[in-house]
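Box S2. Input/output pair 1.
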Amino acid sequence: MSSLTFDHPKAIQGYVFIVYFANIMCGIEDKKYFYDFIEDDVLARFNLQSLTRCEKIHEEIKQSYNELQE
């Protein structure tokens, strides 16, 4: 069990996970982190058990963001 699950009440865990995920994706974008750094609980929650799936969702998020900027 990760500290993300243990340290936060169930009522706000969804928020904690999404903020953590957004933060780590920004860190990956800035080359501060690697996909391997993502907590297993977060990967499971978002069904991202493979590196390929993480990379795909990251690209989709970047593409959506770029489209919003146009």
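Box S3. Input/output pair 2.
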Amino acid sequence: MATRGQNNDKATAPQTGVDAGRAAFEHEKPPERTPGLKLFDAFLYPGITNVGVFGISVVATYLTSKGGMKNAQGELIYGKFGDWMQKRGDVLMNWMKSKGLSHDTAEMAKYVAFSFGDGTLLAPVVKKFEDNREDIAKSIDNALGTRPDTDDAYKAEPKQTWGSVLGGRAITALIVIPTAVMLDKKGLNNVMFSEPGKRLGEWMNKTPFIKRNAGHVDLAELGKISVFEAFYTSICTAGLYISSRFLAGWGEDKSQPKPSDEIKPAATIRHSKAPSANAPKPFMPAAPVALKSEPKTDEPKAELPKPKDSKPVVVESPIKDTPTVKVDAANLSHEPSRVHSHAETTQHAGMNG
């Protein structure tokens, strides 16, 4: 039966991201996520990541289509950088057209490819914030007064690595590209992006403030790209959040040694206490002694004279109520087997009594 201390240790032991996944698998309730952790996720992913990637992708994708535009004097409006951005888009579109894709399909694929690639530039920012997830979430909870008594909820969060962040982006690409291809085959890209984008561009052209400050920007193209990026950037952000956390938890689980891989400690040899000085020594057989054979001779052996008229000697036992033993002194020299030690005499006397 577990003791009170053992129950407390089990309840307050910090958990890792792997522990939370294992607890869910074993139908154990993982630590409840704090408001600080939830606000951190909302700030980093829908906030910084989604808005940041959307802004980068809109500008980069627009330059990929219109970066080579020139003014009335024949000068590049967006400079050499814009011209280079459009050339890379033209190279990709021409290659896809050579593979049999239509103009609209090749343009859509160009948007997806460069939107994903340019959005990956924000990965270092995501990694930096993830490295400080626990501290930022604790600060938010401290400010809100919602910090729990233990840090189990913070320790249970998956620890993001470069592999999980970039791997999450790669998994996101595997989600976005098939989605774009499927929508294009069903003719939904025009319905979802091109037409709404044109209407957005027309609205911006009719807005004096936007038209006055837009300069040479093609508002119709910008509107189409904005609608396109709003949809796919949201998919990328959600895919990055889910897949990167999954990879982080999976990586932690793989790094834990399996029970069969654990190095078992060598068996401990327990030594008994040193024997005391009064302890009996163990029996050790004596070394055999070689007996020398006596030379044979015909001379008779000398025998001890047998006493005459010898009387039995009475030996009184020092133990009370023990019968006395009579020893025939005449037989002492001739029958040594009849003579017993005091301990043996006492033992026989006790058995006979």
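Caption for Box S3: The chain has a mean pLDDT of 76. Residues 219-255 form the longest helix (37 residues).
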